[in-house]
Structure formats: structure tokens, C-alpha cells
Amino acid sequence: MALVAPSILSADFSNLGEEIKFLDREQVDYIHIDVMDGVYVPNLTFGPPVIRAIRDYTDIPFDVHLMIDRPERSVEDYIEAGADRITFHVDATTHVHRLVHRIKDAGVSAGISLNPHQSPDLIRYILNDLDLVLLMSVNPGFGGQSFIEETEEKARHLKRLLGDDNSCEIMVDGGINADTGRRMVDAGCESLVAGSYIFKSENPREAIDMLRSL
Q1: What's the whole-model pTM score?
Q2: Among 33, 134, 171, 198, which residue's Cβ finds the most Cβ atoms within 10 Å?
Q3: Catalytic amino acids?
Q4: Exposure class string for 36-67: b at 16+ Cβ within 10 A, else e
Q5: What does the pLDDT read at residue 164?
């Protein structure tokens, strides 16, 4: 079974509390929160105040994806707001190893995100320090994009680098639906981020169950 992480980037922002309550009732594995700063990516979304405001609606782990420049400047703000897992981009900061351990020392799971053009080889010497690797299967910044096919082979390559003894979780984000989700699980991904497939579905509950069954 796949772990399911609905991305609230595709949720109804005017009714966000009720959307979180729905995900809580469905007992999804994570709630994926895309943080964008208008610098690292050309879009603006959530910040610590929004994360703090929705934290009381659920105990489901908040999987916070920092698509921001120089995340070391504000990572503690997201931890204090209620993040349970924090992923940042490998090219957004100079001292990746240092920031990974700063996050972990705060009691929060730490992950690295790779954009479509970036190879898992970039992080091979830090894989043993990571709790997760997030593979972007679209270019980051906007929801509703089409899945980039090369991500499937990238996941297989990452799985080989990790080997059988590494517990690091492989997560994929972008263009995930029943078909692409199945292929990515077959390629070695344990968790699936899905936004439009869930929140724009006529039956979001069925969409969650479909991904969970993969």
C-alpha cells in the first residue's frame, strides 16, 4: 500500500479548515504543504501563520515542502508552526548537510527535494542522513501540471543508490494519478503527493482510496 499525502495547494483556500477536517476523517498518511516564496519558484503560497492556524484541526503529520530560497533563514519558524517533516531543495542552500542536521536536531524529519533535471547522484553522500527524498515529477511552482516521464527511471536509480538497508522514504510529487502513481510505486516510491487528482475529483474519498491501494 502506498502512503498518501494530499497537497493542499489544490484545496479550496476559502474553506481550508473544512478541507483539513475531511483529510483528518480519511486518515491520510501526511498532509503535504507547499511553501513558495516567489523567489525560488514564481508563486506565493503558505507561510508559518497558515500552518499554525490549521495545526489544531488534525494530528496527521504535516509534510512541509519548502520551495524557498535560503531555507536556513526561516526553518525554525516552520518547525514552531507545527511541521512534522521538512523537505528543502538541494540547490536552495549552500550547506545542505548542516541544514539537514539542524532540522533533525529539532526533532523533525528532514528531506531533500530534487527538481526534474537533478540526478539522485547529487545527494548520494548524504542519503544516510535523510529521512526522505522528494522527487519532483513536474517543475515546482504550480499545481495541475503533467507528469514528467523520466521521473520513473530516476526513482529506480535512487532506489538502487539507497540499497536494501536504507530506510529513507522515496516520495514523488507532481502529476500523480492512478496510472502514474502505480508506475512510481512499482519504481520504488513509498509515498505519493497528489493535489488535483484528489481535490478536483468528483469523489475525493475514492481518489484517496485508489492511491492508497497501489
Answers
A1: 0.95
A2: 198
A3: 34, 173
A4: bbeebbeeebbbbebbeebeebbebbbbbbbb
A5: 85
